Amino acid sequence: xxxxxxxxxxxxxxxxxxxxxxxxxxxxxxxxxxxxxxxxxxxxxxxxxxxxxxxxxxxxxxxxxxxxxxxxxxxxxxxxxxxxxxxxxxxxxxxxxxxxxxxxxxxxx
Length: 109
What we know:
This protein is mainly alpha-helical. It has helices spanning 9-28, 33-40, 44-51, 59-69, 78-95.
């Protein structure tokens, strides 16, 4: 099923840009794809998929690779990133929809 999935053009563009950033940062460190794969605990093929802009790689794996080579993720300040993440979680929790309680209906006629 995942192989047949079609992504929006903007998503594909973003994934390709992200992959190019990972590849450039890896090259700056003079690491091979195999070396980055070893450090991340993934296969060389997974590294190449991220670098080539394949959108099917898990976001956690892609972010792990980016962090290892120094590609900034959202904010350079880790404390700010943590605070932003906490604020985002709070916003999501505040929006959760709860099923309304069943009204108390007297069924004794």
